[in-house]
């Protein structure tokens, strides 16, 4: 099994529900049923995708509609409400680093014309919170809000490489347990982490093949990752110049974050 597939299995194994679900967990499952491929759902589709009984879904949807967390479109389908979007804008982890990083990302994008991304850590995953890319350039992933296991994207590898030793070992041990060839996957990721610390940037094509993703961390003053930025370069591009560019961009974001008291 590939490292990418291992990542999905690793993530899935940790996402299985246990026991009776709380009301908050049920709300989370309902809202998590929406994604870029499913922005509008019927009540029955929402019940199926969330794994909740239709009666429970109907009752909770009524409450979420009244609270503005869900809305109905012109075809009477359910979709995410504006209030959820407003809550998302207040997320300090995403908004603070996004605000600082965006001007530098725009400079890099203007210089290269290549897709540039920003991600932040959420436990053992990375969430993409900003993205600049050419229209119609064929680079539709990652999308804003997309979440991946840390080891399957350049942004995530850059973050993982600068996590604590204990966190890295726990993550790699979990990866080893996830699939039969987990030790091989773990060994490969371990080499990538060492290389990332040595060069200052991560390199992977797991989510972008045949293009290559190059990512560099944004660290606080104690060396802990605030997030990471990445650039997607075409197949066959010289790695080193882009590696230096993304590393310089990350350091500019980092320096500004320090100056503004974020780190």
From TrEMBL:
Work out whether the entry's keyword set contains DNA-binding: yes
Residues forming the IclR-ED domain are 83-259
Swiss-Prot/TrEMBL keywords: DNA-binding, Transcription, Transcription regulation
List the InterPro entries: GAF-like_dom_sf, HTH_MetabolicPath_Reg, Tscrpt_reg_IclR_C, Tscrpt_reg_IclR_N, WH-like_DNA-bd_sf, WH_DNA-bd_sf
Query: For bias kind Basic and acidic residues, which ranges apply?
Result: 13-23
Q: Which SMART domains match?
A: HTH_ICLR
- Mark the transmembrane ranges: none
What Pfam families does UniProt report for this protein, alphabetically?
A: HTH_IclR, IclR_C
Disordered: where is this region? 1-23
The HTH iclR-type domain, residue ranges: 21-82
KW DNA-binding (keyword) present:
yes
Report the PANTHER family cross-referenced here.
HELIX-TURN-HELIX TRANSCRIPTIONAL REGULATOR, ICLR FAMILY (PTHR30136), HTH-TYPE TRANSCRIPTIONAL REPRESSOR ALLR (PTHR30136:SF24)
Q: What is this protein called?
A: IclR family transcriptional regulator
What organism does this protein naturally occur in? Georgenia alba
Output the lineage of the source organism.
Bacteria, Bacillati, Actinomycetota, Actinomycetes, Micrococcales
